[in-house]
Every structure is written in structure tokens, then in C-alpha cells.
Amino acid sequence: MVIDGCKGISRNNLEPQLNAALGYIYDNIISRRITDPANSQNIISDDITTEEKYRIRRLANQALDADSWNQKFY
User: Fold this and answer.
1) Cα dihedral sign for 53, 56, 58, 64?
2) Are the beta carbons of 56 and 27 closer than 8 angstroms?
3) This prediction's pTM
4) 3-state DSSP call for residue 5?
5) Tens digits of per-residue pLDDT, 27-57?
6) CA gap 70, 67 in Å, rounded
7) Percent of the chain having pLDDT more than 90?
8) Which residue in 3, 33, 52, 66 has its CB near the most CB atoms, within 10 A?
9) Beta bridge partners of 43
């Protein structure tokens, strides 16, 4: 998801990359089907419960709303 979220984002600055990744996770974690790159039969997204996906989404949103780097990673 991070790789997909950062597509087209400059690699020269970390903050836009992080915000793009977090935004992509927020927008897609609930519905995106994620497969293991080494084994397309392994659906990784099936290993995360719906409750966990909503928690990840909420935490991504909190990180996007944070005012400082320290708040993003606390």
C-alpha cells in the first residue's frame, strides 16, 4: 500500500511521501484486496479483521492530522 500510495511522489522529500502513503492507506485499507507479491494465492488483507482495518484507518487519519513528526509516530 505504501508503494502504491507513493507513486508519482518525489523521492527527494520524506514528508510528501509519508502523507501520500498515509492518505492512500486511509482511503483504501477497508476495501483493498492485498496479495502477497511472492504468492498471489496468499491474500494478506484477509488476515486483518474488519475491526483492525478500521483501527489502522483511524490511526492513519490521526497521523495525517498531526502537527509534528513526534505526534505522527507516537
Assistant:
1) negative
2) no
3) 0.86
4) helix
5) 999 999 999 989 999 999 999 999 999 999 9
6) 8
7) 82
8) 66
9) 35
CA–CA distances in Å: residue 63 to residues 1, 19, 32, 33, 59: 16, 8, 20, 23, 6
Q: What percent of the chain has pLDDT over 70?
A: 99
- Residue 1's contacts (CB-CB under 8 Å, 6 or more residues apart) are 21, 24, 25, 28, 29, 32, 34
- Side chain identity at residue 16, one-letter code: P
- Are the beta carbons of 55 and 30 closer than 8 angstroms? no
For cell 490511526, what's the residue? 59
Q: Cα(65)–Cα(29) distance, rounded to whole angstroms?
A: 18
What are the backbone angles phi and psi of residue 62, rounded to the nearest 5°?
-60, -40
Q: Where are the domains of the chain?
A: 2-72
Which cell numbers hold the place of 25?
A: 492507506
- From residue 6, how far is each of 3, 49, 50, 51, 57 by CA, in Å? 5, 25, 24, 25, 17
